[in-house]
Design a protein that fits this description.
The chain is α/β, with parallel strands linked by helices. About 20% of the residues lie in helices and about 30% in strands. β2, α2 and β3 form a beta-alpha-beta unit. The longest helix is centred in the last third of the chain and has 19 residues. The two termini are about 30 Å apart. Bound molecules: flavin-adenine dinucleotide.
């Protein structure tokens, strides 16, 4: 069958827990599906250990990625066609201006092909927000790091900084304290965003120091990072901190640019969904997981959102 001339019931975009959960359910519901993933696994693929993937007491991120792929492939059969290594560039509506659901058709353009589907599930998650100060681009991977569990051990016995006072920042600091000489955490606001219990535990380590109310100004160095320059907001003092590694944990950006012309996004670029059924502002398009404006984002939540969406998509396609 030529995928370009087929009109699929459903197009699932993504390769993390949300997309894979949706793919497994689509197969069980016999929805003719095209599944497009840049790669399998999603954001926590880089984790050394995940302890809260329900039903699995402990699993590495890379094993989670391979088991997600295996789970989908086990049940995909000839119902779910998987296109891995493809990136969706744009989704447009070809037809469907009346209320007859069977008439909706969306065009999904990737870097390799164009597909058509009656319904679309957006499950493209998010990626790390980048530090945006002079020197940040120059020193990325030369001392500036966005994944402590991947690169942290390279900084053993060194002085490092963590930027960001949310849970991710404090969890990163906790990891680094196991082998770094010292860890300084800088946060932009007057109070940390992380859970109190985590803050207290991390700050009790004598190698740990945290500073509130700071503004990062610049990163400098030679071949590698040597200094982080920040401003103390209260005193307006400029501080030059000698440092070998900078771990950035300042949030994430949803991977939604490719559908921004079609559906409503909030000011953070997250897809606005109805939390009861994951419907977006456009009939025929659903979204699940970290790309949405759901309040909480976790692997299990992403998978659960997608299952909710699939139940709803099935009903919609069958005109109920
Ligand atoms: C370092 C780290 C550790 C974490 N640890 C945990 C943990 O221990 N427990 C937990 O519950 N949560 C954890 N999380 C959060 C968890 O990873 C996310 O909540 C979860 O991955 C969200 O799943 P998702 O399927 O919505 O999106 P993602 O996991 O972000 O997956 C998005 C997928 O879409 C694909 N994609 C993106 N754009 C396109 C496109 N245009 N075309 C095609 N494909 C595309 C990507 O390749 C990716 O496969 C962690 C996150 C990070 C960053």
């Amino acid at each position: 069958m030529n995928p370009e001339s087929t009109i699929y019931d459903l197009c699932i975009i993504g390769g993390g827990p949300a997309a894979v959960a949706a793919g497994v359910y689509a197969s069980r519901k016999r929805l003719k599906t095209v599944f497009i993933a840049k790669e399998f696994g999603g954001q926590s693929s880089v984790s050394e250990e995940i302890q809260n993937w329900i039903g699995t007491p402990t699993i590495s991120g890379s094993k989670l990625a391979s088991s997600l792929k295996e789970h989908l492939k086990t049940y995909a059969g000839d119902i779910v066609e998987i296109y891995e290594g493809e990136t969706v560039i744009e989704v447009t509506k070809k037809q469907g201006d009346n209320s007859v659901q069977a008439d909706y058709v969306f065009s999904i353009k990737t870097d390799k092909s164009i597909y058509s589907a009656k319904a679309v599930l957006i499950a493209t998650g998010s990626s790390r927000r980048k530090l945006n100060v002079p020197g940040a681009d120059k020193y990325e991977n030369k001392g500036i790091v966005y994944c402590a569990s991947c690169d942290g051990p390279l900084f053993a016995d060194m002085d490092v900084v963590v930027i960001g006072g949310g849970n991710a920042g404090f969890e990163t600091a906790a990891q680094l304290l196991a082998y770094c000489k010292s860890v300084v955490l800088l946060h932009k606001n007057e109070e940390f965003k992380a859970d109190e219990i985590t803050v207290k535990k991390v700050l009790s380590n004598p190698k740990m120091h945290a500073i509130l109310n700071t503004e990062i100004l610049e990163v400098t160095g030679g071949d590698f990072v040597e200094k982080l320059i920040y401003k103390e907001k209260e005193t307006v003092n400029k501080v030059e901190l000698p440092v070998s590694g900078i771990f950035v944990e300042i949030g994430s950006t949803p991977a939604t640019a490719y559908i921004s012309k079609l559906i409503e996004l909030d000011k953070f670029g997250q897809v606005v969904v109805d939390p009861r059924n994951q419907q977006t502002s456009v009939p025929g398009v659903w979204a699940a997981g970290d790309c949405t404006n759901g309040l909480y984002h976790q692997n299990n939540i992403a998978a659960g959102d997608a299952v909710k969406a699939l139940e709803d998509i099935y009903m919609w396609l069958h005109g109920k």
